[in-house]
């Protein structure tokens, strides 16, 4: 390829990829599969590697991250990033409207039919604010708010946010600044926390902290994994196309920015109040958190006439939603033990209604929070229901404290197994270290072991595990494989069929590949991906057990904390014994022969589409085999497909498509023959 061809191709691929990013992350309407997207990206990255002179700062390849920022540069904002004054009720809003009118010299007639000022109402996104600077249609710099006068340059990290355009389209001004909020969508936050819980990592407190913590991470590849998003809500600069906020936001949308569809142009403050009342209830249906509504005077001339105070614009105000609050008596503090041994203190309350439901319990988080709030049994406490599902205690009504009460002594022993608790330096939670005998930990470990991504024994659900444990039949994951049908049958609600399923499920799990077994045994901090990486590297459990710390650290994804956790796990004689028994039961503690082979070039340049159900191996295994032997997998049939690997019950659409394009179908025997 000539250098000129490469340059053209790089440009074409870049704009194609940016368009797909836009379709997916801004319009929420992808037009190609993730797989096809990844292939285009790989092609671009390979070309950029070969012709580094054409690698641009805003290439879509920069979104993957990888660059490390050791110290974020502090930069001065061209226009200060002010905050907004707050309002909390209708009175405050009417006052604001009055001030606006006074400021503009408008005599208000008052009343419901007053046409009044044109306001734009927007959702107040709960994340961290960011300022983006564009020049000639290119993202130049992304700066955090900081103290409002200067902030941190987080450009590298911002580029990993797929909804932030790196290059613009349409008729944009030559130079401008646009501000918005970076946030973590609820489902992303929940998924990350679920994963953290599974591997025993500390949970993130809320999506806002998660978003701001993510933006400050040094490794942009890690930021990319946080799947942050960004709504823009304020554009500044000379040469903006319109004289009003609402129109300019629409223009910004056409340049490629993600602008909320929920903003509304309102006529007069009463329409504003309706908007607020609507979102006060509806906000819980959004896939991200908002903590209020922002109200802005739409017209720029009016904005200019109103101007700013030292802290905030006079033409805008934030309305903060009330977190409902009640006060009630704290009856007692209980302590709960989670699967990973983490202790959570829970407040038992005199039942009260809050947000339409009766609240009897609230989270007290950890020892530090109890100490900070100085909550004592018998106190009247303020309970609030925020964005979180579990209500929390936010303070104590000291005026109602009974005399002669003592400060709360945090429990020193596990409420379940009475082992003395431990607290790791720098961590908020206390832990019960008795991981192999403490009941909730034992049951939790088994629950994780049988879960879908681990051993996938769906005939053995959480309730059955509790029954088995309570009946004294299982005390650890190895005991599961000693279970006999006669032992299970007497259990309550256990029929012949479910007992058979259970035994068969256990038997089938012996074929589950090594990497999933490694995930299933529940080494703290070893998640699904890490387990896969480790398995690929060490190939057998024996090698892993005998690996030195240095060898472990050399594995991709394994850092200090994981290396120590692995060493601790295998250093525990009880775990060693469990592993030995699982090995004797016949579980996979090595990669399969296919996986062990370093792979071949036998399927080089061939693209496969897998469809249907197979007898000899699972679809996943076939996918792995294709990749291991140099071939590519694709989700949809096109001219580029070399073969369709067809099992039983292949979809009729796919069959038709393959026939019309003249693509060869092969069955699993033929495929295996190709590999010799
Ligand atoms: S406008 C001069 N619009 O709320 C006007 N802010 O104190 C600048 N926020 O720091 C802000 N959603 O981080 C505006 N639709 C929205 C917003 C919004 C969230 C945040 C922003 C700002 C804070 C206000």
How do you describe this structure in short?
This protein is of the alpha+beta class. The protein has 25 helices and 22 strands.
The percent range for strand residues is: 15-25%
Distance between the termini: 35 Å
Relative helix content = 25-40%
Looking at CATH, the homologous superfamily of the largest domain is DNA ligase/mRNA capping enzyme
The unique ligands bound to this protein are: 2-(butylsulfanyl)adenosine
Sequence stretches where pLDDT stays below 50 over 5 or more residues: none
The class by helix and strand makeup works out as alpha+beta
| Computed Rg | 30 Å
Instruction: Describe the largest sheet.
Output: 5 strands, mixed
Query: Can you tell me the number of structural domains?
Result: 6
| Mean pLDDT score | 91
Number of beta-strand segments: 22
Identify the overall geometry: globular
Quickly give the CATH architecture of the largest domain: 2-Layer Sandwich
Give the CATH level 1 class of the largest domain. Alpha Beta
Give the number of helices.
25
Overview of this protein structure:
With 676 residues, the protein is of the alpha+beta class. It has six domains: 3-64, Orthogonal Bundle (Helix Hairpins), CATH 1.10.287.610; 118-273 and 284-316, DNA ligase/mRNA capping enzyme (D-amino Acid Aminotransferase, Chain A, domain 1, 2-Layer Sandwich); 323-415, OB fold (Dihydrolipoamide Acetyltransferase, E2P), CATH 2.40.50.140; 439-511, 5' to 3' exonuclease, C-terminal subdomain (DNA polymerase, domain 1, Orthogonal Bundle); 514-597, Orthogonal Bundle (DNA polymerase, domain 1); 599-674, BRCT domain (Rossmann fold), CATH 3.40.50. Helices cover 37% and strands 19% of the residues. The chain has 25 helices and 22 strands. The chain has a five-stranded mixed sheet with strand order 2-11-10-3-9. Helix 1 packs antiparallel against helix 2. The model has no long low-confidence stretch (mean pLDDT 91). 2-(butylsulfanyl)adenosine (IVH) is lined by residues 82-84, 122, 124-125, 129, 181, 233-234, 294, 313, 316, 318. 2-(butylsulfanyl)adenosine binds next to strand 3, strand 8 and strand 11.
């Amino acid at each position: 390829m000539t250098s000129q061809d490469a340059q053209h191709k790089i440009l074409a691929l870049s704009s194609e990829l940016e368009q797909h990013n836009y379709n997916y992350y801004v319009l929420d309407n992808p037009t190609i599969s993730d797989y096809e997207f990844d292939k285009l990206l790989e092609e671009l990255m390979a070309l950029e590697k070969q012709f580094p002179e054409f690698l641009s700062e805003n290439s879509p390849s920069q979104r993957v991250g990888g660059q490390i920022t050791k110290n974020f540069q502090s930069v001065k904002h061209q226009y200060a990033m002010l905050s907004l004054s707050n309002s909390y009720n209708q009175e405050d809003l009417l006052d604001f409207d009055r001030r606006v009118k006074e400021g503009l010299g408008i005599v208000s007639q008052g009343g419901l039919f007053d046409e009044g000022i044109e306001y734009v109402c927007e959702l107040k996104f709960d994340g961290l604010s960011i300022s983006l600077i564009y020049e000639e249609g290119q993202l130049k710099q992304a700066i955090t708010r900081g103290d409002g006068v200067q902030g941190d340059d987080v450009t590298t990290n911002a580029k990993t946010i797929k909804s932030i355009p790196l290059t613009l389209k349409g008729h944009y001004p030559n130079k401008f600044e646009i501000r918005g909020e970076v946030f973590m969508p609820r489902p992303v936050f929940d998924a990350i926390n679920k994963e953290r819980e599974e591997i025993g990592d500390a949970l993130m407190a809320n999506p806002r902290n998660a978003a701001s913590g993510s933006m400050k991470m040094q490794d942009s590849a890690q930021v990319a994994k946080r799947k942050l998003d960004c709504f823009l809500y304020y554009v500044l600069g000379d040469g903006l196309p319109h004289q009003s906020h609402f129109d300019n936001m629409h223009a910004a949308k056409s340049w490629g920015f993600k602008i909320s569809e929920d903003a509304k142009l309102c006529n007069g403050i009463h329409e504003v109040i309706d908007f607020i009342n609507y979102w006060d209830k509806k906000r819980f249906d959004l896939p991200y958190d908002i903590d209020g509504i922002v109200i802005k005077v739409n017209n720029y001339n009016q904005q200019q006439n109103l101007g700013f105070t030292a802290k905030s614009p006079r033409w805008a105000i934030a309305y903060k939603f009330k977190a409902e609050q009640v006060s009630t008596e704290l009856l007692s503090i209980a302590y709960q033990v989670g699967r990973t041994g983490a202790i959570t203190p829970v407040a038992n309350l005199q039942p009260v209604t809050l947000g339409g439901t009766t609240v009897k319990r609230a989270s007290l988080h950890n020892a530090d929070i109890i100490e900070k709030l100085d909550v004592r049994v018998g106190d009247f406490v303020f309970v609030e229901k925020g964005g979180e599902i579990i209500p929390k205690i936010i303070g104590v009504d000291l005026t109602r404290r009974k005399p002669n009460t003592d400060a709360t002594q945090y429990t020193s022993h596990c409420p379940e197994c009475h082992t003395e608790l431990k607290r790791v330096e720098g961590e908020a939670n206390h832990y019960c270290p008795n991981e192999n005998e403490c009941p909730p930990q034992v049951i939790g470990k088994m629950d994780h072991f049988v879960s879908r991504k681990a051993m996938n024994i769906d005939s053995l659900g959480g309730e059955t595990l509790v029954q088995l444990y309570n009946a004294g039949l299982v005390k650890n994951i190895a005991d599961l494989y000693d279970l006999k049908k006669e032992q299970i049958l007497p259990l309550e609600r256990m029929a012949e069929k479910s007992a058979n399923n259970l035994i068969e499920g256990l038997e089938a799990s012996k074929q589950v590949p090594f990497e999933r077994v490694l995930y299933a045994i529940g080494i703290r901090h070893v998640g699904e991906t890490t387990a896969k990486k480790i398995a690929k590297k060490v190939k057998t459990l024996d090698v892993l057990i005998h690996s030195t710390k240095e060898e472990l650290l050399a594995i991709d994804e394994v850092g200090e904390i994981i290396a120590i956790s692995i060493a601790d796990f295998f250093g525990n004689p009880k775990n060693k014994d469990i592993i030995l028994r699982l090995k004797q039961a016949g579980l996979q503690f090595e990669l399969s022969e296919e996986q062990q082979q370093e792979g071949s070039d036998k399927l080089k340049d061939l693209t496969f589409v897998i469809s249907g159900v197979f007898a000899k191996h699972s679809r996943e295994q076939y996918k792995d085999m294709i990749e291991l032997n140099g071939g590519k997998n694709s989700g949809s049939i096109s001219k580029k497909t070399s073969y369709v690997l067809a099992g039983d019950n292949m979809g009729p659409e796919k069959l038709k498509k393959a026939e019309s394009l003249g693509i060869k179908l092969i069955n699993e025997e033929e495929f295996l023959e190709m590999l010799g």
